Amino acid sequence: MKKLILLTLALMSVSSLAEAKKILYFTHEPGRWHKYAPQKEVFIKVAKEAGWELSVSTGDHDPQILKLRDPKLTEGYDAVVYNFCFAKSEDLEAAANVIAQTKEKGVPAMVIHCSMHSFWATFKGKEQGKATIKNGLKEKWEKAHPGKEFPIWGDFTGVASTKHGPKAPIKVEKCCDHDATKSLKAEGYTTTSAELYNNFYVTKDVKPLLNGVQTYKHKKTKKDVTDKAIVMWEVPQGKSKVIGLSLGHDIGEWNQPEFQGLLKDAVNYLAK
Questions:
Q1: Were 36 and a residue from 17, 31, 74, 76 both cysteine, which residue would form a disulfide, CB within 3.0 to 4.6 Å?
Q2: 245 close to 111: Cβ distance less than 8 angstroms
Q3: Are strands 109-112 and 240-245 parallel, antiparallel or unpaired?
Q4: What is the three-class DSSP state of 9?
């Protein structure tokens, strides 16, 4: 009887592992502007609670960008989560490969916070509401890859972002009912001190899931200023989709149960 029980438990364990969603979490450490090491530990905790089979790719800033060039980056995974800050990178090979993992290979992606503030040269310009590519960059790409689409990072994330307001609490409000936000109460929640990313432009297929409202004192006028932006959204990308979440600057946010719930809901939604 004892052997039978042990065998049953072993089979249950194997069965659970076979059913577990395989998730890749891609980050870098230690991070100049963000505490990526403790954020990684929070994500590992969420993954254990969710029952995912998690793989973590981390390391120094520049070597991690090079890893993004790997054509097999997301092979075998049900979803990938990007939590990095490569704002000044002009590595078009890396940006194009990340985009291809979702659009062409069909692996859904979640992009968190400063992932929106990455590969700025491909879209960040002075003209609000549209992507402006850094001079000479597109020509360089077309010379190396004739006929291949230029990788505009802001078009991939769906909501392009170029700056943020001061660090202050953000009131997070639901736009709709959605599986990626199902654990969040109807009334939403308020973050700890956080950064509200602007919506530099929003692509036409974006479905807003959460809005953020932030009120703070203007430095010069001392008057109350209120800013509003989409802070979580879904956008289709070729064979799959992207969930964007621009919250998550400070570890205090990551430690909030509501934020952890959003991570769990979004990844489960993407990986189902």
A1: 31
A2: yes
A3: parallel
A4: helix
